[in-house]
Amino acid sequence: MPPPETMLMENAPPAPAFSFKRGTVGCLLVHGFGDTAALMEPMAVYLREQGITTTSVTLPGHGTSLHDFALISSQKLIGTVEREFAEMKEACGSVVVVGFSMGGLLAIHLATLRDVEGLVTICTPVFPRGGVLSEHVLQRAARFGALVGANIPKFGITSLSDKTLRSYLNGYNKYPSRSILCLLDLMKLTRPILKRVTAPLLVVHSQRDDVIWRESGNYIFRSVASAEKRYIVLENSRHKAPLDRDRCVLFEEVTNFCLSRA
């Protein structure tokens, strides 16, 4: 049996979304590619303890089966986040959207479509590792893989310093080539709209990230039109920052950012 962090939920029921109602400040949490809402749960609990209402939803195609995952599209993902934001906005006076990895791309799109009070991107890629050249190579490989129905093994190191947190890594252990194409498409769609982002912004990057190219964080920070923006580096964390060594630092930074939007 594979370890908890790489369990393939091939026939599992949809992973539940969760919502904690507490204060008038709301925080919409968006997980990453191949993950579920569970990855964001420790952060949500911390935010709730600080008086912040939180909502997180498992994105379409996530937490069910590889067949469902292969059918995701940029439009479906963006639409889901937009609907969740609209519902949360009715309950909270101000809403900050926090996106991890691919969730950060969706959060950026939301910030151009809706009046968000703040935007946080955590380890978010607007390029694959290696930049545009690598992107072209990956697109060709993924297109060929999609034609033959190939799956790609999970990339990056999933080990965590705190083994008690491994149960939150309950996403897929491989990715359909079609889903990789969706991720690459979402990156490409995101880059030109960054200049339309004006909401207060917090960009977070992990120094030891083994999945995301660091230049992505710098590119986001430089490209947005936000008058208020910060860039922080988590020195001791890898890609799964919400569960890694600097998670307490991350939680505190996100909390302070959310409360400053009240």
UniProtKB/TrEMBL annotation:
Q: Which residues form the Serine aminopeptidase S33 domain?
A: 27-245
Q: Does the keyword Nucleotide-binding apply?
A: no
Tell me which UniProt keywords the record has, alphabetically: Hydrolase
Active-site positions, per UniProt? Answer: S101 (nucleophile), D209 (charge relay system), H239 (charge relay system)
Q: Where is this site: Important for substrate specificity?
A: I157
Q: Where does substrate bind?
A: F33, M102
Give yes or no: UniProt keyword Cytoplasm.
no
GO terms assigned for molecular function: carboxylic ester hydrolase activity
Q: Which domain of life is it from?
A: Bacteria
Its cellular-component GO annotations read: membrane
Task: List the InterPro entries hit by this protein, alphabetically.
Answer: AB_hydrolase_fold (IPR029058), AB_hydrolase_sf (IPR050266), Esterase_lipase (IPR012354), Hydrolase_4 (IPR022742)
Tell me the protein's name.
Answer: Alpha/beta fold hydrolase
Organism listed in the record: Abyssobacteria bacterium (strain SURF_5)
